[in-house]
Design brief:
By secondary structure, the chain is of the alpha/beta class. It has 12 helices and 22 strands. It folds into 2 domains: 323 residues, ANL, N-terminal domain (Rossmann fold, 3-Layer(aba) Sandwich), CATH 3.40.50.12780; 86 residues, 2-Layer Sandwich (GMP Synthetase, Chain A, domain 3). Helices cover 29% and strands 24% of the residues. It starts with 15 loop residues before the first helix and ends in a 5-residue tail after the last strand. Bound molecules: zinc ion (ZN).
């Protein structure tokens, strides 16, 4: 079985111009539907003094204030779910509840959450037997990812999470070729199999895995791929909007899905950042029953336009680089803990580090505290920091007996505004 060739949708290989035109058509339909009823979107536009008819270009569209994911739960409580819906709740397909709590309505269109192309890109094909280990209870994960598999022509074992003994029995007794779930759980299953004297490579039939919902370090991916002799690819999405991006066989980032419009934006202003810069992932899915226009996910990433050998033409999301809540804006620049960590990794003498932002005397200050096990060139450390974060910090080397607590915050914002 060839798991590497072809696309699920022709649009995966469309030209940039075709994509822009298609996306703009889809966005106009979403805006028209969202503005067609008294609800969340109309109120957001009215608050910003925007008239729906005046949204005539992508530039107009990106000036619509974002809807923050963290406000979604509160607004659903205050206003009720129907305030967000363009249809009667009883005409939907399902309503899930994800942590927040947030209600996640699902419409009746086939492949509503858009994961089929992601599974195809990962290498799932008709005839695969997939073991689904995401939960089917209340949260959308299990069903959201099962339906596209069945649409592709795969069979699914609705195993749900946990219960390792039964999971192993399924893997041993059935010709399971695909795994869907969290990589850490698959590793646990592999370890338990090894403890029982089984060889996950020889005794199981797994060939392909689709994982999501947690960070996937390359070390964990290789470990599990080697353990089972399989290929692991990841997808990125949320319970509110479904699939946003996914890896192909070539790796090097996650292709943006064709079923939504993705922007990378300044977390404060909500306006798109320059191409290639880091910012917040803002998503508008092209679904109409529950229109979420410019949903700000709180996740940080950046886009790469580099061509991919797989033939898919959409830009790639370069991993999830952290959460907006863990960043601070200092003198007009965002400080991202993941970028600081990458810069600090170049200095083996630095055991731990912490960024402290203050504003004593009304002026923003930036201090990088480092805990070391040997002499370190603080000017070189400051320069490495400045290379990624644009700003030069004051570097403070902790004295003997001073320590940064294990698991302490990577960034502390001590600024006060009164
Ligand atoms: Zn690709």
């Amino acid at each position: 079985m060839d798991r590497t060739q072809g696309f699920y949708h022709e649009r995966e290989a469309e030209s940039a111009n075709t994509r822009t035109a298609r996306q703009w058509n889809a966005l106009q339909a979403v805006v028209a539907r969202a503005a067609s009823f008294e609800g969340e979107f109309r109120e957001r536009l009215a608050t910003a003094s925007i008239v729906p008819d005046e949204i005539r270009s992508l530039d107009d569209f990106t000036s619509i204030p974002v809807l923050r994911k963290k406000d979604l739960s509160r607004l659903q409580r205050e206003k009720g779910l129907p305030w967000f819906l363009s249809c009667a709740p009883g005409t939907l397909s399902r309503i899930y509840q994800s942590p927040g709590p947030i209600y996640d309505p699902e419409g009746r269109e086939p492949d509503y959450w858009g994961w089929a192309e992601a599974f195809y890109a990962a290498g799932f094909r008709a005839g695969d037997l997939a073991q689904m280990t995401f939960s089917y209870h209340l949260t959308p994960a299990g069903l959201m990812l099962e339906e596209p598999l069945r649409a592709l022509g795969c069979a699914v074992i609705p195993a749900g999470p946990g219960n390792s003994a039964v999971q192993l029995q399924l893997l041993q007794e059935l010709p399971v070729t695909g795994f869907v779930g969290m990589t850490s759980f698959l590793r646990t299953l592999g370890e338990k199999a090894l403890e029982k004297g089984l060889d996950p490579k020889r005794d199981f039939s797994l060939q392909v895995g689709f994982v999501a919902a947690e960070r996937l370090p390359e070390s964990l991916r290789s470990e599990v791929q080697d353990m089972f002799g399989m290929v692991i690819r990841q997808g990125y999405g949320t319970a509110d909007v479904g699939c946003i991006a996914y890896e192909c066989r070539e790796l090097g980032g996650m292709h943006l899905s064709g079923r939504c419009y993705v922007e990378i934006c300044d977390p404060v202003t909500g306006l798109p950042v320059q191409p290639g810069e880091t910012g917040e992932v803002v998503v508008t899915p092209f679904t109409l029953d529950y229109p979420l226009v410019r949903l700000a996910t709180g996740d940080l990433s950046r886009l790469s336009e580099a061509p991919c050998a797989c033939g898919r033409t959409s830009p790639k999301l370069m991993g999830i680089l952290g959460r907006v809540d863990d960043t601070a804006k200092v003198k007009g620049q965002f400080i991202y803990p993941s970028q600081v960590a990458a810069a600090m990794a170049r200095f083996p003498q630095i055991l731990r580090h912490q960024v402290v932002v203050g504003n004593a005397g009304g002026r923003d200050s930036l201090t990088l505290r480092i805990e070391t096990n040997g002499p370190v060139d603080t000017a070189a450390v400051a320069a490495a920091f400045q290379e990624t974060a644009k700003l030069r910090p004051a570097v403070s080397v902790l004295g003997l007996g001073e320590t940064i607590p294990e698991g302490g915050p990577a960034l502390v914002d001590e600024r006060t505004y009164d």
